[in-house]
Amino acid sequence: MKFLFQRIAFYIFTAWAALTINFFIPRLIPGDPVTSLMAKYQGQMSTEAIQSLYVLFGLDKHQSVWSQYVAYWGQIFHGDLGLSFTFFPTPVSEVLKQSLPWTIALVGITTFASFMIGTSLGVIAGWRRGSIMDGLLPVTTFLSSIPYFWLGLLAITLLAGPGSFFPSSGGYEPGLVPSWTGSFIGSAIQHSLLPALTILISSVSGWILTMRNMMVTVASEDYITVAHAKGLSERRVMVSYAARNALLPNVSGFALSLGFIVGGTLLVEIVFSYPGIGYNLFQAVGAKDYPLMQGVFLVITLSVLLANLLADVAYLLLDPRTRKEG
């Protein structure tokens, strides 16, 4: 328990540091959202309206940076992330509420699928060294070295286009209203196929390679030899003895990858104009939308910290050595 409390205290401090950086980084970017809004309306705004916008976005020039920082923390504790400039006057929390499910559904499902497929194939490749499965490793490694967005561009060029089954952009067919109807769900699945395929191809080989190398290491351990000597079946030795002990690094890696579900595929969402949180961040940076940028960074930061905490808990449960004092 002492180890767990130490880790929680560390993550609380890390969250404070990350949120502090989250406050200052957007303010270091040249310009501000009000200036962008003035340019958008070609200067057709009164002085009073401009000053009101500065106050509304928490950029009152009469306030010190410290006062803005204190107000920022007060808003966070009250769950108020401010108003989005890009989607004005929609609150940031509402924008995130609409876009977050798209990212979680797309990246969450593909992350879990790539973990299960890659781990299973890695077990077979490591246990049966020299087989056809083991010989496919260079191909998967080559595919994983290609960036997400480049695979996305290739997929759009080769598979999308007029008359193609695969749409090249968007999250659903224009004209449909998001709802739990068969037509909308079918359209959403159809639009997610190419982005999901891009992420899956790029990420699955990492799990294969990690699991394969761990299986090779574990296969030479004494308890594997003893299991064979006891006359246990090949399948039982592979699954219950070798794979079970080789799985620990992949489990912790999977817990960490959960934290990057939110912001790990920014470029993929930009390439496919997918209505996820990464695409919102891209729009916010272009419009210098401080509240939306801070909201996105807040969600990404908290998800990564939570995933790291889950990884530590997984280590505590799976490896008894971490529960012992030095």
TrEMBL record:
Location of the ABC transmembrane type-1 domain: 100-311
One Gene Ontology term from the biological process aspect of the record: transmembrane transport
Keyword field: Membrane, Transmembrane, Transmembrane helix, Transport
TM spans (from-to): 9-29, 102-127, 188-209, 254-275, 295-318
One Gene Ontology cellular component annotation held by this UniProt entry: plasma membrane
Topological relation to the membrane, as annotated: Multi-pass membrane protein
Cell compartment(s), UniProt: Cell membrane; Membrane
Family to which the UniProt record says this protein belongs: Belongs to the binding-protein-dependent transport system permease family.
PANTHER family given in the database record: OLIGOPEPTIDE TRANSPORT SYSTEM PERMEASE PROTEIN
Protein name as annotated: Peptide/nickel transport system permease protein
Species this protein is from: Kribbella kalugense
